[in-house]
Amino acid sequence: MPHQADTERVLGAVDELREELVETVSEAVRIESVNPKYPGQVYEDVVGGEGEVSRFVSKVYEDFGCEVDLFAVEGGRENCVGVWRGAGSGQSLIYNGHVDVVPPGDPANWRSGSAWSGKVDDDRIWGRGSTDMKGGVLAQAFAALAIRRAGFGLKGDLILEAVVGEEVMDHECGVTATVKRGYTADAAVVSEPTLLRTHSLWYR
Ligand SMILES: [Zn+2]
Q: Known catalytic residues?
């Protein structure tokens, strides 16, 4: 069990990172990353956004010292894996989430004016993907970052994953590709907010 003082240090780092996390999620939401295989989409017109989000997330992973691996089964649809190496004496953990989103539908339905505004007001981030699930992907990265900022290392490896293809069960291009590439762990946490399908992310 961690000491109470250690826990407080990590929670303090979480608080200090709050604004940076909100800004980072907002920036990610502004990248249009509709799944190109979603019904009604023209693949050639839409492909590329997912890879752009993965490259954006890779910078976050890199910034706190992860080994970063960007790879794609289909061009423009890169997955990103960031590995924070542990000392080798503990169990490993995967934090996983997807970077693709479903189409935004009728623009008139977006009170913030656009599905890609990433607008932040009061306690919400507006835009497609803020909840499902760029918020989750980046919250996982920032959870790891908070531990590092608080001055702690890990015993086992932490594997951070931002993958494509989830919205149409195209996992061969996404999460299955990460497994085939060799990324496995003792346990995994997926930050999918399936039962909270709203258009905003609450962060308080
Ligand atoms: Zn989702």
A: 100, 166
